[in-house]
Write a structure and sequence with these properties.
The structure holds two protein chains of two kinds.
Chain A lengths: L2 E3 L4 E5 L4 E3 L2 E3 L5 E8 L6 E7 L6 E3 L2 E6 L4 E6 L8 E9 L6 E2 L3 E6 L1
Parallel strand pairs in A: 2-12
Antiparallel strand pairs in A: 1-4, 3-9, 5-6, 5-10, 7-8, 8-9, 10-11, 10-12
Chain B lengths: L3 E4 L2 E4 L5 E7 L5 E8 L3 E10 L2 E4 L6 E4 L5 E6 L8 E8 L12 E2 L3 E5 L1
Parallel strand pairs in B: 2-11
Antiparallel strand pairs in B: 1-3, 3-8, 4-5, 4-9, 5-6, 7-8, 9-10, 9-11
Classes of the chains: A mainly beta, B mainly beta.
Chain lengths: 114, 117
């Protein structure tokens, strides 16, 4: 069985602060995939990144970066110099290779104050 | 590509009424899913389909039925709506992994906000 824990229910920061959203996953499979989604106040779910279990390279995309560490079963998401537009709920998810159903965390609500 | 679309965007029902939510995708994806999202509960899977003509139960299937008569469409039905079904419903689709290509990403529709009075 898979499990995703996003221990931070809500994070509040002031604009331009850096913020890290934690994601800890559990899986018995050697082949699996990790995802992050963003849900802004408008409500849609926007895909941000996918990582497979064989690729532990960190990824940077503009102000966003992701740190995948198999040793700690974590796939953390950092926003550098946060902006008000980053305010959203962020979901982490995992999917085992060959499985039909992803497992989502409960989400972390990020509030960026001007 | 329109991606994943959902109809309607909003709906208000009275207890006991029935309705069907339509999900359509134009990406030729094999897998389709229906989720509901409630405050503090994250996303919960209602039903899913791994191909045309096949459906399976998810985590919270009671009170819902689904059909996948065409590959591009996945319908979610509420036979007799209850206030507990007030929620935001999301449809999603995903391509079946090919040999050597790993899995693919699940893409979501914009959601349907349903209120049952």
């Amino acid at each position: 069985a898979q499990k995703v824990t996003q221990a931070q229910t809500e994070i509040s920061v002031v604009e331009k602060e850096d913020v890290t959203l934690d994601c800890v996953y559990e899986t018995r499979d050697t082949t699996y995939y990790l995802f992050w989604y963003k849900q802004p106040p408008s409500g849609e779910l926007v895909f941000l990144i996918r990582r497979n279990s064989f690729d532990e390279q960190n990824e940077i995309s503009g102000r966003y970066s992701w740190n995948f560490q198999k040793s700690t079963s974590s796939f953390n998401f950092t926003i550098t110099a946060s902006q008000v537009v980053d305010s959203a709920v962020y979901f982490c998810a995992t999917l085992s290779g060959g499985s039909y159903i992803p497992t989502f965390g409960r989400g972390t609500s990020l509030i960026v104050h001007p | 590509n329109a991606g994943v679309t959902q109809t309607p965007k909003f709906r208000v029902l009275k207890t006991g009424q029935s309705m069907t939510l339509l999900c359509a995708q134009d990406m030729n994806h094999e897998y389709m899913y229906w989720y509901r999202q409630d405050p503090g509960m994250g996303l919960r899977l209602i039903h899913y389909s791994v191909g045309e003509g096949t459906t399976a139960k998810g985590e919270v299937p009671d009170g819902y039925n689904v059909s996948r008569l065409k590959k591009q469409n996945f319908l979610l039905g509420l036979e007799s709506a209850a206030p507990s079904q007030t929620s935001v419903y999301f449809c999603a689709s995903r391509r079946r992994a090919g040999v050597g290509t790993g899995t693919d990403t699940q893409y979501f529709g914009p959601g349907t906000r349903l209120t049952v009075l």
